[in-house]
């Protein structure tokens, strides 16, 4: 069965970065003393939060005064890694992207000041800059409107908050990295995708570009056909630890031939980059191929964002065996399959076990 990727994806905004004065609230905090949140902006923030779009702040302001105002309005918890300082807003936007570990092209910046929008647009042209004068239109933008809101999406802010707690604990930890990972009590579950997984699987192909081995996207309908295909297998990976669930963080699409299996797509959420999960999923695929007595290959299409996935393949026993234009074909060594790391409990099932 030949697979055809969906149309090239449009920009997907993962986080909206807000100015404060005359944007999130009416007035200038340090001049007026008392400011009032703009109801239409609060409504937009809550609506987008429910869709899984994150929020942050880039504001020239007094940090303590602005934070106190946001807390007083009951809005502080909506904003991840807020940048409230006297520096350039473009630098604040960069800091947000780095803290969230997402690309600059996944950010939108909202400000009432034309100069500030121009400064950000010039310094970080990847960012979508929007005028704050008409915030209501944001909820209608295609970049902020996912086709389906999955359960993982509706809990995205909660999962990022859990990740903040993990980082705080990790920064205080003085032992070796592997020892810290062992304290997390991580559990990775790998299983064939079910119908209820398709919306999140599609969302992963659209949202994930740093850790996507081919850059391909697939519609929900395409994924469903592949899931039911006799010569394909679609696997999803879920991770949780003592701080809570990460949700569905990985996806693998296998084309299963008689002598060779090919990984047509492998992707991981950037939130688990430091957990070694990508290598564990590859090890699982190598074990499945070994049990079936077939060679395991993988398609790889280099982009300016996915170099880490090429490194992950190389570190897990793959070497280049063919090249066709932009597409590289990698093949795994048939031996030296490593054990799963001791800090991670893996619960894996295959279609053979599920019947």
Chain-wise SSE layout:
Blueprint: E1 15-18, E2 25-26, H1 29-32, E3 36-37, H2 39-51, E4 54-60, H3 63-72, E5 83-85, H4 89-100, E6 107-111, H5 114-123, E7 128-131, H6 151-154, H7 156-172, H8 177-183, E8 186-192, H9 198-207, H10 220-228, E9 232-241, E10 244-256, E11 260-268, H11 277-292, E12 295-300, H12 307-315, E13 318-324, E14 327-332, E15 344-348, H13 351-354
Parallel strand pairs: 1-4, 1-6, 4-5, 6-7, 8-15, 11-12
Antiparallel strand pairs: 2-3, 8-9, 9-10, 10-11, 12-14, 13-14
Helix pairs in contact: 4-5, 9-10
Could you walk me through the main structural features you see in this protein, from its secondary elements to its overall organization?
- Helices cover 35% and strands 25% of the residues.
- The chain has 355 residues and is of the alpha/beta class.
- α4 crosses α5 and α9 (198-207) packs across α10 (220-228).
- The protein is elongated.
- The two termini are 21 Å apart.
- The string of secondary-structure elements, in order, is EEHEHEHEHEHEHHHEHHEEEHEHEEEH
The CATH C-level name of the largest domain is Alpha Beta
Number of helices: 13
CATH topology-level name of the largest domain: Aminopeptidase
- Per CATH, the architecture of the largest domain is 3-Layer(aba) Sandwich
Give the helix/strand class.
alpha/beta
Task: State the share of residues found in helices, binned by percent.
Answer: 25-40%
Q: What's the main sheet like?
A: 8 strands, mixed
Estimate nothing, just give the exact number of structural domains: 2
Query: Which regions have little confidence, pLDDT < 50, spanning 5+ residues?
Result: 1-9, 351-355
What is the typical, i.e. mean, pLDDT? 90
Instruction: Write down the Rg.
Output: 22 Å
């Amino acid at each position: 069965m030949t697979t055809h990727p969906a149309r090239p994806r449009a920009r997907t905004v993962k986080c909206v970065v807000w100015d404060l004065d005359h944007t999130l609230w009416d007035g200038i905090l340090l001049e007026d003393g008392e400011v009032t949140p703009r109801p239409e902006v609060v409504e937009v923030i809550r609506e987008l939060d429910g869709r899984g779009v994150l929020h942050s702040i880039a504001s020239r302001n007094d940090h303590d005064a602005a934070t106190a105002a946001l807390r007083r309005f009951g809005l502080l918890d909506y904003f991840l890694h807020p940048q409230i300082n006297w520096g350039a807003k473009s630098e604040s936007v960069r800091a947000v992207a780095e803290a969230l570990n997402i690309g600059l092209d996944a950010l939108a910046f909202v400000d009432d000041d034309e100069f500030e929008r121009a400064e950000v647009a010039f310094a970080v042209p990847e960012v979508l800059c929007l005028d704050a004068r008409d915030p209501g239109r944001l909820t209608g933008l295609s970049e902020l409107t996912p086709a389906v809101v999955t359960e993982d999406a509706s809990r995205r802010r909660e999962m990022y908050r859990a990740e903040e707690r993990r980082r705080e604990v990790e920064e205080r930890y003085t032992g070796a990295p592997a020892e810290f990972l062992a304290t997390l009590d991580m559990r990775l579950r790998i299983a064939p995708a079910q119908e209820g997984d398709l919306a999140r699987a599609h969302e992963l192909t659209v949202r994930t570009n740093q850790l996507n081995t081919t850059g391909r996207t697939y519609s929900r309908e395409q994924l469903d056909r592949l899931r039911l295909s006799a010569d394909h297998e679609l696997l999803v990976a879920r991770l949780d630890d003592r701080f809570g669930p990460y949700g569905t963080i990985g996806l693998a699409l296998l084309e299963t031939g008689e002598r060779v299996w090919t990984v047509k797509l492998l992707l991981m959420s950037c939130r688990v980059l430091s957990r070694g999960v990508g290598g564990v999923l590859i090890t699982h695929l190598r074990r499945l191929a070994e049990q079936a007595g077939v060679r395991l290959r993988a398609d790889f299409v280099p982009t300016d964002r996915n170099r880490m996935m090429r490194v992950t393949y190389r570190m897990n026993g793959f070497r280049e065996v063919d090249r066709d234009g932009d597409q590289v074909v990698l093949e795994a060594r048939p031996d030296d399959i490593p054990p799963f790391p001791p800090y991670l409990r893996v619960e894996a099932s295959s279609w053979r076990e599920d019947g």
